[in-house]
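User: Working on a comparison across species. This one is AbfB domain-containing protein from Cohnella boryungensis. Can you predict its structure so I can line it up against the others?
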Amino acid sequence: MKNVLRLSKIGLAMVLSCMIAFSTASAFGPSTMYTSPSSNPSPGSLYPRLLTLKHNGAYNGRMLATFEKYVSGTPTFPIYESTNGGVSWTQISQVSDTVNGWGLRYQPFLFELPQAIGTMPAGTILLFGNSIPGDLSQTKLDMYKSTDRGQTWTFVSSIASGGAAHPNGLEDPVWEPFALVYNNKLIVYYSDERDPSHNQKLVHQTSTDGVNWGPVVDDIALGNKRPGMPIIAKLGNGNYIYVYEYGGAPEANFAIYYKISANPENFGAANQPGTVLRTRDGVVPTSSPYVTWLSGTGPNGTIAVSAYSSSDIYLNAENGSSSNWTRISSTIPSGYSTALEPLADQHNLFILSSGALPNGSNRNSVVFGSLEIGNGSLIKRLQPHSPSQYFVRHYEFVARIDPDPIATINDSRFRIVPGLANSSSVSFESVNFPGYYLRHYNYALRLERKDGTSQFNQDATFNQVPGLADASKASFQSYNYPTRYIRHYDNLLRIDPIGTTQERSDATFAIQ
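Assistant: Here's the predicted structure for AbfB domain-containing protein from Cohnella boryungensis:
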């Protein structure tokens, strides 16, 4: 486990930084970006994507979004814009198929060039999508560009062409483009069923000008198994994480797997699937993942992954270490290939979802909102102001302080997550009992499994404030009994009113 700096060594600035991480931005949503009219075919909308402008000067910070829009005629990809950090959205344009006459039907992806590629300058917005005729007889991954931040669009090139758009492993389609720039090349990753030796494989092609594309390179190729939906994110240490769904995985069908590499053109042997994403409490998410990285959540930042199987967001603050995945609940409903984007503060996560795969006559709306990650993926210990050689721990599910070293070290490790009752507050989740939280009952603190009730959520939520005995440390005010604070008394933790110097000391903790 990577050690983190002790709060006592970095003083008040660190306390303020931690407080800011939980309070500068309020979570919003779920809200609706688009509602499919009842006259449109099912599923109405699907497969949303978005980006935040970073290479457009005064326009940086604006956000663009798109999605599959199901209509009776020729489909296009609508382009929506937000100028207020994702809180509200307005449609500004649409991208039409100007070369095939089929329509842009499936799997859009938006990308902003961070540098010039060929004649396209930095800041050019690219849209990749699957052009497919109404009878679904062909698939074609095409690229369009906008030099006016999404207002107008022109065709640039076609990357790959394939057979009918039926995901049965028999008709050779190409699917699900994703793009990034590396080593002065534009790389497009996608799912490919054209190789007769594979049900489906994940591949990429590169271009130095956006017009001419190099040979197909295998990334994940597993014979009769079915890997799909490649998504890549760059981490703060310079590595890249490649996340995909693994059809036929031993853990669960379409389990989320990942690989990590310093070179996004080489994620190791293509016949090796990589690592399953499994949380510390044993959950393996499945189907249509998305991955991003937030820089403002601790020394390594935080990897965030979504999956179709749940509205939870899966977090890793240890650069993808397989034993350090946790999960946090979200109010934004899960959807097929939900998209994620860090907001400007880099510790709030924007989530864009458009519901389920076709199921009867359902018509999905595109919904969005944000989730405060804070330092929720970091593992911390709480050290009393006095006696300073002690640490908070649980023992037989009772919260107490004991002298260090604590033999069962994980008894003293917690995730400080956004509060269960209020995301601007905090809750303490056990590391070795994931899903168990410190909560008060008859004023005494215990470790108990979250039961989903409002009472539990309030009892397990605390307002973090500057330390009552030392402002460079922290104190924790009960959310539902605001005159009481967490303090130790006879080595046991409880919530009490605080008045005396001794009580202020007992209610003050350093976060390590």
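For your comparison, note: The domain at 22-372 is CATH 2.120.10.10 (Neuraminidase).

User: Helpful, thanks.
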